[in-house]
């Protein structure tokens, strides 16, 4: 597994669960899932650091 595959893993698994091809046109779904996943993760880290 490459580093880029590791970063895209949450969105790829979500697309597989939905039954769509993450490499095709549904790549936007993968992008959205990855964006939301890493947004929440970063906000939690920032909240822990600030609190």
UniProtKB/TrEMBL annotation:
Taxonomic superkingdom: Bacteria
Keywords: Membrane, Transmembrane, Transmembrane helix
Organism the protein comes from: Puniceibacterium sediminis
Membrane-crossing residue ranges in chain numbering: 28-50
Protein name per its UniProtKB record: Uncharacterized protein
């Amino acid at each position: 597994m490459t580093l880029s595959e590791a970063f895209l893993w949450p969105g790829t698994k979500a697309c597989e669960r939905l039954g769509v091809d993450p490499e095709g046109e549904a790549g936007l779904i993968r992008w959205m899932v990855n964006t939301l996943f890493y947004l929440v993760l970063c906000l939690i880290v920032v909240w822990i650091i600030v609190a």
